[in-house]
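Sample entry (920 residues):
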Amino acid sequence: MRSLRGRTMDECMRRQPRVLDLWNVGATGQVWSLRFQAFPPSVEDSPLARRGREGGQAKQGLDVRGDSTESGARLARPSSAPTRALIVLLVLGIALGLVPATRAANPAALRNAILDLTGTFGPRYPRGGEFLQRLAAIESRSARPDTAALADTDDALAALEREALLANPLLCEHPILFVVRRQYRPDHHNTATFFPPAAHEHNDGQFTPGGALKTLDLAQGGRVTSLLETADGVVRDPEVHFDGRRIVFAFRRNAADSYHLYEIQADGSGLRQLTTAPDVDDFDPLYLPDDAIAFSSTREPKYCACNRHLMANLYRMDADGANICQIGKSTLFEGHGVLTPDGRILYDRWEYVDRNFGDAQALWTVHPDGTSHAIYWGNNTAAPGAVIDARIVPGTHRALCVFGSCHDRPWGALALVDPALGLDGPEPVLRTWPADARQRVRANGWELFDAFASVSPKYEDPYPLSATYFLCSRTTGAGEQMGLYLIDVFGNELLVHAEPPGCFDPMPLAPSPRPPVLPPARDFESRTGTFYVQNVYEGTHMTGIPHGTVRSLRVVESPEKRFWTRPAWNGQGQEAPAMNWHDFGNKRILGTVPVEPDGSAYFSVPADTFVYFQLLDADGLMIQSMRSGTIVQPGERAGCVGCHEDRRTTPRVGRTPLALNRPPSALGGWYGPPREFSYLRDVQPVFDKHCVGCHDFGQKAAAVLILAGDRDLVFNTSYNELWRKKLIHVVGAGPPEIQAPYAWGAHASPIIRVLRDRYRDRLSPEELDRVVTWVDLNAPYYPTYASAYPDHHAGRCPLTPAQLAQLQKLTGIPLADLASHNGNRGPAVSFDRPELSPCLAVFPNPNDPRALEALDIIRAGHAQLARQPEADADGFQPCERDAWREAKYLARRDAELARRDAIRSGRKQYDANPGPAAGP
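Predicted structure, serialized as tokens:
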């Protein structure tokens, strides 16, 4: 092998290595790696192949593969002692600089690419024959047992690889547009990349400026031209217009600015700003077939339910920036929108209802008017945790996307997915880069959402040039630096261009086909839309449920999170503030509608409302529940074949479903107008009336269960007891898999069985239904994310941190460390009846000065709650900061309604400044 010792990084890059990196053992300024190359049978007997096998990976030698159950790639045990010894010597030699580190191009992969390019492009790729002859000559020279000749073939093969692959007409006939910037700083989620500077946002101090919008012209010898440069800001997310002559992108001028949308001509002239709203981040723009622009934006301020980060939804606007209108309404994040060949928007969406936060990031589609949101792939797949940044491969219905992780940057493995083979699991994953990353794909499993965090190298920003050749950003080997790469289906990976601090978003600066304009299916007059279900019994997870079992369908809203606190309750993730024992969301029952004998249902739903559905039996108990959400736009009529049906099926043709022979059913709320469900208001009165007489502090039955409503540090006593003692069986923040009918909820919960079997005659139908419904809603507690005590324990406790610390010191109970569903030891205090607080039991003498001081602290909490109730009680008023956030939310909503009114009346309305500019 020829030594790389003393070569610069750029010289190493020009050699174009392409194989699996197993170790990086380098010194500053140089790259040293041990790498293995697998050669196909066509070159198996050449010295090039033999040298690869000597490194380790052959048909019957070292087995190198990824292991999805471990945090990083795994090097399997070599098959023989000599091979193991060789690897040890190689590692030591490389580390000491005595043995060179290199990797060669793959002759077979290169030959296949040259043959394909020659056959596909003909005269547009005129040197194909010459390249094949040179490749044959290189392989012939490598047959000589001459060390110098072998070194020469390395350089010759690398040079030929670069020359032949860069001659690809898809790559060289038009300039390549790209962005230069630093890699986003690591934060908590892959969505946390825009670091908002607005008041009271969580990660506003992470912005790292510097970057440019550039072009690379390979036909001009790799000439790089800057269209826009910034030392204080960041350019991101460019998209080229169908005519190839203009570019829309997001630009933040400095740390105090937000991301706004701009447009520039392909030659760098004519820069103009399209959006201007302060304290709003607009990004991920794309041109629509009618020349309007869709994008992601924080214009509806909402937060990650399992943390505190600002989220975004999809919007659209006219080509000049007028009449911005929201077209997505999921509860968390919608980003990386791109067009499909049929005119829809393909985007990645993060939302969850009654399920784990980390594996609920999938690919979805929507029409440009915001109608027909539908899953594309991956909504119930355990790993990857994040399926993002997809583009349709030309001439196919497949998508090239990034398989990433929840807690990572928006990078990972590249994957080619075919949804015609399934909407979840590994079967639709045709291949990945790196190849062994496919082993990490899992349909089922618990907490696998970060399985792709250890993939190496990392890929980002895929752009398919054809069904065979793809552009992307990829780590170059120099830390986190990203370069522009050309990869193909034959196994070639070529570094096209790299410059500091990193290169992103490559795409041809060229004309592209304009998809058809889809006719709008929404209006700006209605406040409702309609849903219909053809047959609730049709579905992958309704097997075995006889017709007639389902009598009604409950419509539940899953509201967005508008507020957050610093202290958290740890459910399955960080609730901030505490909301529930295990899950994150609050719920609002909109009403229940009938299901006809043939399984059909037809009903009206408020527009722009994120809802899900539950199927109920004759007793009102849940049989099956959605664990995702959907919306309708004003005037939209949406429907489905069944519940959890295979989305690749079509409706049965025949008799009109019975529900469609009548007007849509109306939603009438649940024992009153729709409201946010509150355990203390909607459920606890049932226990107070029928159960607390026996199941109270100091009573004999308390040893089994306490159902008193006394307020604890975070929730109340009965809620704590029912969850902690597993008397309810619900999913909480449950697994990604769709659950079987009757698997959870009232039918599966011991407390409901007891109430129905032993106490049915004592409880009225409404009282029993209140407890049943609470369980079927996944047993929530708080009605709102707003808080009265945002800086106290779990964001809910009336005691100050100092008071809680003193109570902890007096009792010896680590109260501050018990703010989690799996660490909680049970009710510790009673703010309603302080003298009955369980934590006082540690004092044998109630007159002990420590006991009296502890009691005084709890009484102070009681008095504080009387003056300032928390969100579970009557009289609640949110803290000043949350009141400001609510005013900001409502002002943004009013601005959205004003823009819709302008659209309805045919007027133009541009960005204004809605909402408070600063807050408490």
